[in-house]
Prior knowledge:
Elements: E1 29-31, H1 32-39, H2 43-51, E2 57-60, E3 63-67, H3 68-77
Antiparallel strand pairs: 1-3, 2-3
Amino acid sequence: MSAGRPHAPASSGPHCGTAIDAPALEPICVRIAVAVKLTGIGRSTIYELIAAGEIETVKVGRSTFIRYDSLKRLFEKH
């Protein structure tokens, strides 16, 4: 804290800036490597599930992203 400047409180209201009030954000898409870490499914199996239409992907340039909700549905039905 610098001299001459009063210490400002972390929030200006009862709900401002508190993590407890903020909804948990889910990603829209994740890269293949992240999907492997999140699910514990091997990389080759992820690609097999993509080929079988079990997991939805989105291509952006040369990058392949897996729709996060698609991963969740995979585990809900198995």
